[in-house]
User: Which sequence fits this backbone?
């Protein structure tokens, strides 16, 4: 294990159901992983939160902390937003922080750390004008977006090649 901390922010798209596998790949790659879920993703993984906590080696964030509570995770060196839903992508691009996951994404974008994002939603939503604007806004802000061969968000119920996703992260020193 290294001292490099990676925040993983996950939304409610099909690959979130395999997030434990991603966390194991990342930890083998030397990352200290801190997981935050959108409220819907947390509901999808209700019975799998214990497994995700065990894989990450620390508690999974699903809600905001109180102002006087200690920070539950150390400061990040990088962030991976995966999977990133249409809703979360658009709110993030607009700077909306109405849940802990969006707050984490917005703080990371403002801090200048490396960010990799994997948008994952239906083609009809990818064709919505807000989607292209949001992807461009995030790209211009320095976010590395992993898209399909046509430059669109990934979709469907297939699992991701987690090694490919991990390979887009900055090299752990």
Assistant:
């Amino acid at each position: 294990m290294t001292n490099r901390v990676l925040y993983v922010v996950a939304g409610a798209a099909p690959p979130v159901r395999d997030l434990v596998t991603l966390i194991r790949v990342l930890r083998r790659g030397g990352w200290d992983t801190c997981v935050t879920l959108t409220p819907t993703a947390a509901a999808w993984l209700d019975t799998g939160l214990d497994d995700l906590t065990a894989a990450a080696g620390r508690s999974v964030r699903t809600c905001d902390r109180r102002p006087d509570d200690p920070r539950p995770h150390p400061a990040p060196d990088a962030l991976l937003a995966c999977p990133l839903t249409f809703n979360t992508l658009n709110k993030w691009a607009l700077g909306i922080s109405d849940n802990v996951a969006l707050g984490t994404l917005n703080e990371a974008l403002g801090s200048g750390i490396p960010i990799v994002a994997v948008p994952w939603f239906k083609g009809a939503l990818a064709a919505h004008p807000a989607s292209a604007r949001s992807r461009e806004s995030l790209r211009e802000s320095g976010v590395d977006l992993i898209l399909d061969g046509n430059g669109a968000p990934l979709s469907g119920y297939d699992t991701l090649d987690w090694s490919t996703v991990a390979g887009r992260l900055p090299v752990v020193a």
The first strand starts at residue 5 and ends at 10. The chain has a mean pLDDT of 93.
